[in-house]
Amino acid sequence: MARMNKVERVALSGGLLGMLSTNPRRALEKVIEQGNSEGWHVRQVIPHSTTNLTTSIVQLLILCCTLFLWTFGAGYLVVFEKEKP
């Protein structure tokens, strides 16, 4: 049988607001529950980090412009799979 795969990115906030309001476990659970309800099964969860220099500079600029309150952060990549119909 053939299988289908898809990858979902779970984005987390950074900065002071991200530290206070972001719950990584809850964010992962939400994405996994949604995938399970659509018939997908989790194959792997991978930490997602930004290694692109341009993205890192933009993150730092946003963080400075918001007075260290918020920036977009890293997160997780969730790999799902299910059988093809």
Work out the helix count.
3
Give start-end ranges of low-pLDDT stretches.
none
Beta-strand percentage range: 35-45%
Number of strands: 3
Proportion of helical residues: 40-55%
List the secondary-structure elements in sequence, H or E: EHHEHE
Q: Biggest sheet: strands, sense, closure?
A: 3 strands, antiparallel
First-last Cα distance? 9 Å
Strand order of the largest sheet: 1-3-2
What's the pLDDT, averaged over the residues? Answer: 93
Structural class: alpha+beta
Shape: elongated
Rg measurement, Å: 16 Å
Fold and architecture overview:
The protein has 85 residues and is an alpha+beta fold. The chain has a domain at 1-40 and 76-80. Helices cover 40% and strands 39% of the residues. The protein is built from three helices and three strands; from the N terminus they run E-H-H-E-H-E. It has helices at residues 15-21, 24-37, 53-65, and strands at residues 3-14, 41-48, 71-83. A three-stranded antiparallel sheet has the order 1-3-2. The longest helix has 14 residues, at 24-37. It is elongated and about 50 Å long. The mean pLDDT is 93.
SSE order and pairing:
Elements (H helix, E strand, L loop, with lengths): L2 E12 H7 L2 H14 L3 E8 L4 H13 L5 E13 L2
Antiparallel strand pairs: 1-3, 2-3
What is the structure about, briefly put?
It contains three helices and three strands; from the N terminus they run βααβαβ. By secondary structure, it is an alpha+beta fold.
Notable traits:
single chain, 85 residues, alpha+beta, elongated
